[in-house]
């Protein structure tokens, strides 16, 4: 049902209410499932009309829908049971026990026994838990308080508890408008038309002469019976038939049948109820959400989804506001189709996987059991591990017999762990190997598991119970889950054929696994012992692989039948049905088709000695390539995580690396880095004093110089770099060559050496740019001024800018809606001390901001204020959306507390206290399950995202004598482990897992002024920082070495006429373009800055000879002069 059809139901409800058709109103409420009338529900509950209570509830939920629904029905039936006992009606009590409460015994047998035991008591108040039960009226009131909480927390009731605000008699008004329009179209309109029916379009009968049209007004009188009429608009009107409306159900509602919770959830008792509940588990998985704390209920299995689908088919997610989709522009050039290199492995390549954050590091598994690490940017084989049994004595007798009979061994699957610290390898006989990756070419044996009888067909990593685990499947028809010590945690059986693949996934807090078997069966499992929740047939009914898109929102499968027919489909998770089948395969394939996804937009399949690409939203082949020939008939392929590289297997026991323009630049950068490193001799360690005294003072006067900014280790570390292995994973090449190379510092002082675009209508000296953001689509910039007004600039797709993305080569449009509205925040009278703050939704549909007053939520299409909340005091100083639930907002305040606020229920769920001054930064790491906060007290606090407990608090390491004050900003590196910390005195890198500082840079040399702001580039290879003297520094993200200084003269044509220096107060990096950033200045202007097309990047690597270059001695990379 379309949104207009849904609104029509509300109009009908209003009409029925106005005409006093009370019973019809409530029946339509129940049957449509659009509006839950809490007042009516309370009346029936307080009156003890339990049958009507349950009947009304049935329009919105069922008893086994989710834990909230289960708890709601339990409370109702428990109250009905207690009232029967209280009036000594034992027969009725037994009937309720058997017919109504029996359903709960399946899930809590002890509770059911306890309830049954109440029959044996003269007065059930003798039970300790019911000793405070009063009379019937008070008990019903207490129950209603509990029910209201449960209903408000239940995701199935979202957006159904508030009736839309409508003007009186809105339906009549629309009909009048329609009749007026019809009357205007009459050839001979009469001045006083006689409207007798709504069943047909109005038309005035021909008069003797033409007359002027007269507005028609439908008399507003009570009707004895409601009128019925055809849909407004007649043919082709705005209300499409319900059957045409696309279901927007929550993911796995149909697949998982409202599955049981994982074993990781903790039990807790809800007040006034003996029924145990569990926290942090919600059945609706389409968009991540966090349920209200303190209330929980187990999700229970059900095979009946009709009622669920009835309610959810029109439900709109509250995670994002529904506006016209703004698709990120793309072109065929985004696909990696250019052959960058061909590498020979030496044996048939079976499986490949790129490192999750080092995007050119490739793991390869072969038919001879060998596992190899390649640095494809260098075309270099870093390390190879031939197959061998690590500990024969620990292996099963069956395996030992099998290996003696046939010693051949092939890899079936290689896979990196999400943190990049482990490589999992599944073999064709029994075994799984885990290698620990510790950087460079260090690959060590970690664990050997005798996992399955026969072949281990697939392997993947998952996080049940918040711990990293390995999921495997095999010829023995089983799926198993192992911890990193080799202990088997779960064992799933139910397939009737060898299991071919596994696809672990998480939506919201529910962890589950899809599995496919060679008989074409698809099953889904939770981490429990209940069994499979799904039993569907895959297209082709043979070998199938399932994958999610990168954002986890879309599910695809690809496979081949025994007859050689290949299938690529997208699934509708809410119904367990195929949503889209992609065409373009040849009739008979000689192998099993393999596929991969990238950028949430493209699919790629290897078939017919080609790579075929699809747009996810189009069933026809987008384009195909043979990669200059030589591919296998059914090649295997794999994208890297950025989607700019694609590897594909060849017929000569090797693979090709394909790249797009970004990928080619990345590969060339690695080649250049290797070349310069190879020319540099190994540098001997020199004392700090020697290093410093040898630096020539004239060094600051040249345009290009070898003055790499030192990265200073913290005093606490005693000169030892404590970076954890997980933090080192990206430094494959850097660790090997860091001491052998030097950056030539590029000093850009002339505007001709870079591109700068000034946003139109941005300069306003009275309105400094306080906050600056790129839109997530990459096509716009949003600035929040110190006066609370937000401005938006958008780039358009045209001949100059085909991609439509932000660029310094084209000046964008200062965008405003036709209404001319401004996005203006609630600003107090004394706004000089206000701290502006802003956060943008993931789909750019709304922006949330504040400037000393209430937090305002703006519609990005209309600039209208959708709602306001969090009135001061305290005033908000920093805003951040929860990464898994857009309904949850972390709000830093001026009184040093952090409010965890639930927008949906308009309630602060918890307050976090740990700082001494106002909050200046918030950053989330989903991988580490932490939120890091920073304050004007120069402190960092680390909070558990699940419980909101404070894990640790540290004060940043300040220069001697410096008071611990000043705004501190935080941002997570792409691996979500390293944390960038920016303070006026320093840039610092922290290992967030340990809350330890591992790198530090302080203003010095060519950049001596205090720092105002800093940000990571999108690939986390650079850090951009702005300074109060107008300079901008570009640093290497790993070492914090200065690569480039951009002088103020580059982006300001002339000095400010006032005595005050104009400098950047806000800085933001483009979310896709690694060398583009924007700054917001103290004069209100906004600039987008990029390197010149000739340069293409910031800073240049140069060879180093004997530790010196052009007569200047290189500065130590591990010491920092006094600041």
TrEMBL record:
Pfam families, alphabetized: Beta-prop_RIG_1st, LisH_TPL, TPR1-like_2nd, WD40, zf_topless
UniProt keyword Phosphoprotein present: yes
Repeat (WD) residue spans along the chain: 449-484, 912-953
SMART domains, alphabetized: CTLH, LisH, WD40
Domain CTLH: 34-92
Domain of life, per lineage: Eukaryota
Subcellular location: Nucleus
UniProt keyword terms in alphabetical order: Nucleus, Phosphoprotein, Repeat, Transcription, Transcription regulation, WD repeat
One GO BP: regulation of DNA-templated transcription
Transmembrane segments: none
Upper classification of the organism: Eukaryota, Viridiplantae, Streptophyta, Embryophyta, Tracheophyta
UniProt key word Phosphoprotein: yes
Family annotation (InterPro entries): Beta-prop_GEMI5_1st (IPR056432), CTLH_C (IPR006595), LisH (IPR006594), N2O_reductase_N (IPR011045), Quinoprotein_ADH-like_sf (IPR011047), Topless_fam (IPR027728), Topless_Znf (IPR048419), TPL_SMU1_LisH-like (IPR054532)
GO CC, any one term: nucleus
Residues spanning the signal sequence: none
PANTHER family given in the database record: TOPLESS-RELATED PROTEIN 1-RELATED, TOPLESS-RELATED PROTEIN 2
Protein's UniProt name: CTLH domain-containing protein
